[in-house]
Amino acid sequence: MTTTLRPAGPLQQTPDGARSRTYDVCVNSRRVGAVELGTLPGTGRRAAGVIRSLHIDEPDRRRGRGTVAALAAEEVLRGWGCDQVSVSIPAGATVALRMATALGYTERSRNMAKDLTGPPPELPAHVEIRPMTEAEYGQWEARSAERFARSWAEHGVPEEEARARAEASRREYLPDGLATEGAAFRVAERDGVPVGHLWTGRLEPAPGEDAAFVYDIEVADDQRGKGYGRALMLLAERIALEAGERRIGLHVFAGNAPAIRLYESLGYRTTRVHGFKPLL
Q: Is the pLDDT of residue 44 over 80?
């Protein structure tokens, strides 16, 4: 029996060049599932493809249909001129995660989250917290954009696109800079000397599911390993709870083992894994 993809709707294209289309997964003309494909807006490079969803009906699972459908989806994306494909998989979808690994996908990053219960956590007495100043914000903005772009570039995104993503992120989440509604910027000090900073806000991880979000946390290189990262993460919880939030999330790039260990020790659990694969 042959597993194929059949268009289930017209090809959609936005003004910025992004494409999307849904397909039925068929076995000898019998529909057994569905796939949704898309591309990211162009940035002067070949398109980056996305498998947005892949579903196989229960009676047809465990027969290799999903694997064949994923490979067929990659062929469609190649035909659209894509040189890379990405996926985003719920952490609990163990079968899908195993399949992605078997097909050559590499983890790029993950989302983690924590439910907030109980009173706001206490901060270490030796850490002083204050709002970030406008001057500090200007310095942070340039440094953060460079660091964010570098992280994307180190995980399979071409440098030009990585910089474009950093700029798009700034426009979306900080339209008014330090004065952006809902954004909280804090600086941690020890004996009057800045040792780290924190940026928190809100994010809608799924429609109708608002949550607090840690957008950026950084400890000065010469101050790492002294507990300031943990103190800033506890501060993020305090800010979220004081704003009435009961859940907090974050995004961390693969390979940042110290950060992942810290988040796990604080009770964060992985919610989604983001992978990518070159299309040769």
A: no
